[in-house]
Design brief:
The structure holds two protein chains of two kinds.
Chain A lengths: L3 E2 L1 H11 L4 H22 L1 E4 L3 E8 L2 E4 L6 E4 L2 E8 L1 H7 L9 E3 L2 H12 L9 H9 L8 H16 L21 H24 L21 H4 L16 E6 L6 H9 L5 H7 L15 E5 L11 H18 L2
Antiparallel strand pairs in A: 2-3, 3-6, 4-5, 8-9
Helix pairs in contact in A: 1-2, 6-7, 9-10
Chain B lengths: L2 H12 L3 H20 L3 E4 L3 E8 L2 E4 L6 E4 L2 E8 L1 H8 L1 H5 L1
Antiparallel strand pairs in B: 1-2, 2-5, 3-4
Classes of the chains: A alpha+beta, B alpha+beta.
């Protein structure tokens, strides 16, 4: 592999397959390439079976610019040598990849995503929605000074407008991009953040003892992808928090038709993690299959060692719990 | 110049007989094929070099149907003319005029 052979090696290789005289073979190889060269200038092309076709191609005169001085000058018309390999040679060389075939990409969504990535970033897609929602919820516990508010607003705006899959990485702020269609979004996000900050301030004055608890609010998440307005989360109505729960990510009031599995999918990326939501709310829920609408459900903060949608092990553990609870409540 | 003419020209140039030339023609093409398929390159002094090159996979769209295809990667034989040959070729036209 990756050896560099010279004419002598070629001669040797031919000698290995034949019982000819070395001198004859060498004379032949030299003649071979000499003739190709000579014939090129006489007839423009040389075609050799099993190898390919050498061809002289004319390059038309064109204008170019000297990169250093900025002067324009003309590149004169000239010729270049092109080599088109014979099909047989092509096949032999391509043997390691010969089994590969062109695959048609059927998935509309996939191709749409691909083209989006290639063409230009647009406001967030439906697939990013869960992460965005979650991102909105984790609001830093900072003293609410004016600068902070502005800073946060900027951060969030940028985040919503960007379309990159980098949205997965929650901690790192996405590189700033010019918000084009994000004006409306920015406003909505700003309102949301302001609400959250007010709640946070209120809450802080009431429960000044537990300082490290994150802010909480309610989010109405109706599944309506595609439209950016819905995407940006309809402004939340403030809700009460349980001050004792230190790891609460947020509290959600269960709507009619909403299920724990849906919440788990929304917050943790996989519906099997509903078991952890249930475990955190055992005092509220008698039967996870029948929860009264309006019940306040506390969503625990995802512990990455236990809840990780990408880790098959944690999914497996959650599934085991799921079967356990299923058996318990199906009676 | 076609293959037959080429063989004849090589035969005259090397001074070998017809049978040997035909035999060597095949052997040489086979040797080059083998080298390239092994991932090796062959460079001939004053002429140029043959080498295998990898073309990456790419996305292609059929313009009439709009279907998208993933074209797999492939290895292609590639010839790079040596600098002396390249210059000769480049100046070929201007010498004539």
């Amino acid at each position: 592999m990756n050896n560099k052979f010279l004419l002598q090696d070629l001669v040797q290789s031919i000698l290995d397959t034949n019982d000819l005289d070395r001198k004859e073979v060498e004379a032949f190889v030299r003649a071979y390439f000499a003739v190709i060269e000579k014939a090129l200038f006489e007839e423009d092309y040389v075609k050799i079976n099993d190898l390919g076709k050498f061809n002289l191609q004319k390059v038309e005169a064109r204008k170019s610019v000297n990169v250093n001085t900025g002067e324009t000058f003309e590149i004169k018309a000239h010729y270049k040598l092109a080599f088109a390999p014979d099909n047989k040679l092509k096949e032999i060389v391509n043997k390691p990849f010969a089994h590969l075939e062109a695959v048609e990409l059927v998935s509309e969504k996939q191709s749409a995503e691909l083209s989006k990535q290639h063409v230009m970033p647009e406001p967030a897609k439906a697939s990013v929605e869960p992460e965005l929602t979650q991102e909105e919820i984790i609001i830093p516990n900072k003293p609410t000074t004016k600068e902070d508010k502005i800073m946060e607003k900027k951060d969030k705006t940028v985040f919503v407008v960007t379309d990159k899959p980098a949205a997965n990485d929650k901690k790192t702020p996405t590189p700033p991009q010019k918000p084009k269609k994000g004006k409306l979004l920015a406003w909505i996000v700003f309102v949301v953040i302001m609400c959250a900050l007010i709640i946070f301030a209120l809450w802080k004055t009431v429960f000044s003892d537990s300082t490290s608890e994150p802010a909480v609010k309610e989010v109405v998440t109706e599944s309506a992808p595609a439209t950016p307005a819905v995407e940006a989360v309809t402004p939340p109505a403030p809700k009460v928090v349980d001050p004792a729960s230190r790891e609460t990510l947020k509290v959600v009031r269960l709507e009619r038709g909403k299920r724990l599995t849906l919440l788990a999918k929304e917050f943790y990326g996989n519906k099997v993690f509903w078991v952890y939501i249930y475990e955190a709310n055992k005092d509220q829920i008698n039967n996870p299959n029948k929860i009264l609408a309006g019940t306040k459900i506390r969503i625990p903060k995802a512990d990455p060692t236990v809840i990780d949608a990408k880790d098959p092990e944690s999914v497996r553990i959650a599934k085991e719990k799921e079967t356990k609870y299923r058996a318990q409540f199906s009676k | 110049m076609r293959n037959k003419e080429f063989i004849r020209a090589v035969q005259l140039e090397s001074g070998l007989n017809k049978e040997k030339t035909a035999l060597l023609m095949e052997a040489l093409a086979a040797s080059i094929s083998k080298m390239l398929s092994d991932g090796d390159s062959l460079s001939i002094q004053g002429f140029g070099s043959f080498e295998p090159r990898k073309k990456d996979e790419r996305l292609s769209v059929n313009p009439s149907t709009g279907k998208r295809f993933m074209i797999p990667p492939k290895l292609v034989p590639f010839f790079r003319p040596g600098s002396s040959l390249k210059n000769k070729v480049k100046n070929f036209g201007s010498d004539e005029q």
